[in-house]
Structure formats: C-alpha cells, structure tokens
C-alpha cells in the first residue's frame, strides 16, 4: 500500500437545482501523499470547493470513491463520517466562519466539544493553540475586535483543535491584505514542516510556487498534476 492519506477514484458530483443540472466534477482521480503540501488551482466555478468538500467528507459524491486515511468514506454512515472528519480533518474557509459572540479562546474551545474533553482541558488547549498562531494576547477578543489575518489565525487554531492529520483550506487568504496573508502563510508553512498534510485551494502564485504539488482543476476534471 502506498502512503496516500487521501485517494479518490473517478469522482463525480452533480448538483440539481430545479431544472438545472450542474456537473461540478466529472471524474476526478487523485492521490494526496501523507505530510505533503498540495495546492489546488483553477478558475472560478470549475469545481475546486466541491472537490474539497467531498474529500473532507462534508458532502457526498454522486459517483466514484473516496478513501480517507484508509477508510472508504462512501460506506460510512453519516455519524461515523462525522466522527472520522472530526478526528482527521481541520477545515479553514475563505470567510473565517468564527462565531461572532464568542471570544477567540471560546471559538477554539468549542471545536473540542465533539471530542468530549473536559471544559478545563478545552480552554487550556485553546490557549496553547492560540499561542502557536501568535495570538496569546487576544484570547478574550471577539472576532469583530480582530484584524482579518488574526481572525484567520483563530480559524486555523480552531481547525487544529482535535490535532487532525489533514488541513483542508479553501482560499484561506482570499480576503486578506498582503501583510495578513503573510502571517497566515507563515503559520500554514510551519504546520506543514511539522508534518501536517496540507491541501490548499488558492489563487495566490506564491503559495502555488512553494507547494510541493499542484493540482489543476478545469471544468470538473484534473488537467494537470505536477
Ligand atoms: N450547492 C450547490 N448547488 C448547486 N450548484 C452548485 C453548488 N455548489 C457549487 N455549485 C456549482 O458547481 C460548480 C463548481 O462550483 P465550486 O464551488 O466547486 O467552484 P470553485 O472552483 O470553488 O469556484 P471559486 O473559485 O469561485 O470558489 C459551479 O458551477 C457552481 O455553480
Ligand atoms: Mg470555491
């Protein structure tokens, strides 16, 4: 067996909205090696986010198979899939998706509730993770009191809450200025050096250049894999 932590075979996804059918993915087969850094690039509407949602188990394919850490996720019930996702995957999205009424520390701690850790342990770990992303001085700040880059680093800390092997990021710097982008990228590259498997959808040339592998998505298919 090779060491692919994610593998897909002939993945298809069709969305049907009323009478409109969209073939978002038209047969995607790929392998993501463990501890690798992969950039997914391609034009708007060509299927990148759909692919990320499927490999992260947030949605199910219309056809094809997905293996995540050795498990064929199509065969799992929704609850077992949710449990696998919580253990193995951290998601970071373009619009940070933080809860606005909670502090940075609470946003990170709530991600651990699923794993059932005691509350005291949750807030200790939340502080550790926020320290890792350089935000120890912002534990009690609400998202509205943080810059975009700081909010995204809280989102990264939250994604790390259950110590996932895989970080899936969908344009994590899409809404940041260049300084905040640099802060976030430093964090992402460091996590990769520490052994995380990183898959990142990006329009940023610097990230694509520094990635070990680039997957090009066009019209629901992979057109290049370098
Ligand atoms: N929930 C949905 N229902 C119906 N159609 C959808 C849904 N999600 C995505 N699509 C369609 O599927 C296609 C692929 O969308 P996707 O979001 O994967 O593109 P993308 O490559 O991530 O684009 P962007 O770079 O703009 O984020 C598009 O035509 C989109 O309109
Ligand atoms: Mg997208």
- Poorly predicted residue ranges: none
Number of helices: 7
- CATH homologous superfamily label: P-loop containing nucleotide triphosphate hydrolases
End-to-end Cα distance: 22 Å
**Which ligands accompany this protein?**
adenosine-5'-triphosphate, magnesium ion
Identify the CATH class.
Alpha Beta
CATH topology: Rossmann fold
Order of helices and strands: EEEHEEHEHHHEHEHEE
Radius of gyration: 17 Å
| Structural class assignment | alpha/beta
Short description:
The chain is an alpha/beta fold. The protein has helices at 48-55, 78-88, 104-110, 119-132, 148-159, 178-193, 205-210, and strands at 4-17, 20-33, 37-41, 63-68, 71-72, 89-92, 166-170, 197-201, 213-218, 221-225. The chain has a single domain, classed as P-loop containing nucleotide triphosphate hydrolases (Rossmann fold, 3-Layer(aba) Sandwich), CATH 3.40.50.
């Amino acid at each position: 067996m090779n060491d692919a932590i994610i593998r897909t075979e002939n993945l298809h996804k069709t969305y049907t909205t009323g009478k409109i059918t969209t073939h978002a993915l038209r047969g995607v087969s790929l392998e993501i090696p463990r501890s690798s850094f992969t950039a997914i690039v391609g034009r708007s509407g060509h299927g990148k986010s759909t692919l990320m949602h499927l490999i992260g188990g947030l949605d199910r394919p219309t056809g094809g198979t997905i293996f995540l850490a050795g498990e064929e996720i199509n065969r799992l019930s929704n609850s077992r899939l949710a449990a696998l996702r919580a253990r193995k995957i951290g998601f970071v999205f373009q619009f940070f998706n933080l809860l606005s009424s909670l502090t940075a520390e609470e946003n990170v701690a709530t991600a651990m509730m699923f794993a059932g850790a005691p509350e005291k342990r949750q807030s200790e770990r939340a502080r550790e993770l926020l320290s890792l992303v350089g935000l120890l001085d912002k534990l009690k700040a609400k998202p509205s009191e943080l810059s975009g880059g700081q909010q995204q680093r809280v989102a990264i800390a939250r994604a790390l809450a259950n110590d996932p092997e895989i970080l899936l990021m969908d344009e994590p710097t899409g809404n940041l200025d260049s300084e905040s982008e640099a802060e976030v990228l430093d964090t992402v590259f460091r996590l990769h050096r520490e052994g995380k498997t990183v898959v990142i959808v990006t329009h940023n040339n610097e990230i694509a250049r520094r990635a070990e592998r680039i997957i090009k998505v066009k019209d629901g298919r992979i057109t290049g894999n370098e």
